[in-house]
Amino acid sequence: MANLLVTGGAGFIGGNFVHYWADKCPEDTIVVLDCLTYAGNRSTIAGVEQAELVVGNILDTDLVEKLLVERDIGTIVHFAAESHVDRSITGPDAFIETNILGTNSLLKAARRAWLDRDGGRDHRFHHVSTDEVYGSLGPLDPAFSETTPYQPNSPYSASKASSDHLVRAYHHTFGLQVTTSNCSNNYGPYQYPEKLIPLFLLNALHGRNLPIYGDGMNVRDWLHVEDHCRGIEACLRNGKVGETYNIGGGAELPNMTVIDTICAEVDRAFAEIDGLGVRFPDAPAARGLASDTLKTYVTDRAGHDRRYAIDERKARAELGYIPQHRFEDGMRQTLRWYLDREDWWRPLLVR
């Protein structure tokens, strides 16, 4: 796998994958295709020497085909997606366009470049999806497995479910060599500050309310983004063509527990790191107060799934996947990264 195309590689998970793959395989060439929407950031992959950023849209089928052929690319890792559920509720059209039509465009380009030219070539199309396609679980329901029926409940998850089906169809109909992974909630460096963990971290630093949907007891499985990258690598190296693998972090927690952990870590940081009170004078912790005083309850999100949980036994057994990050340690590392990389997130707050 000397040449890879990483779609959405200037975003959160894609950008982390670019860093991860560059460290693991420094001899490989990585072409990043990203249209640099609000969630894409050149600085996320700055300094990765073997990564070339091509600013373009996955809807441009001819561009994708040209890249695959001219750069002799045999692997696509497809991250590019609209992914924020709240945005899908207020503006679903962008999700239909990018997640469904964009994935179809990539598949068409891959088929042309890899199957229709000169008798075909070895290749792999890896599609990155979400556990949200499975719907919502009750408190005692078994965790999502790869055979759980799809029951998406938001425009976002419905668009990702559709893209999953397209990937499967291109394999069974045309013979495209595909794998799919459905991941749980990611956290870690370079995450755009509209998602829960970076939003609440930065709000706590700036003394802003921490808006908690409903009763705060919606449950998610939390996956450190580096473990997610490790799982994708395992899919590429060991995954069976045509198969789907669930990638989880083994940390099924209510949102309130996550929020309390964020508050405790912010308070700990202010106690341990000199000068934070000067840098962030509006934080309650700068005045010796607890960050959890910022917690505020707001009206629940429409169609808010109650619980997600991942059964990752297939990935463990077939891929050798094992997450390495304990949630508490990963959260502490994530907070310290944001404190160290104010240069990365500060410009995003004025977009």
TrEMBL record:
<dbReference type="InterPro" id="IPR016040">
    <property type="entry name" value="NAD(P)-bd_dom"/>
</dbReference>
<keyword id="KW-0456">Lyase</keyword>
<comment type="similarity">
    <text>Belongs to the NAD(P)-dependent epimerase/dehydratase family. dTDP-glucose dehydratase subfamily.</text>
</comment>
<protein>
    <recommendedName>
        <fullName>dTDP-glucose 4,6-dehydratase</fullName>
        <ecNumber>4.2.1.46</ecNumber>
    </recommendedName>
</protein>
<dbReference type="GO" id="GO:0009225">
    <property type="term" value="P:nucleotide-sugar metabolic process"/>
</dbReference>
<dbReference type="GO" id="GO:0008460">
    <property type="term" value="F:dTDP-glucose 4,6-dehydratase activity"/>
</dbReference>
<keyword id="KW-0520">NAD</keyword>
<dbReference type="InterPro" id="IPR005888">
    <property type="entry name" value="dTDP_Gluc_deHydtase"/>
</dbReference>
<dbReference type="Pfam" id="PF16363">
    <property type="entry name" value="GDP_Man_Dehyd"/>
</dbReference>
<feature type="domain" description="NAD(P)-binding">
    <location>
        <begin position="5"/>
        <end position="334"/>
    </location>
</feature>
<dbReference type="InterPro" id="IPR036291">
    <property type="entry name" value="NAD(P)-bd_dom_sf"/>
</dbReference>
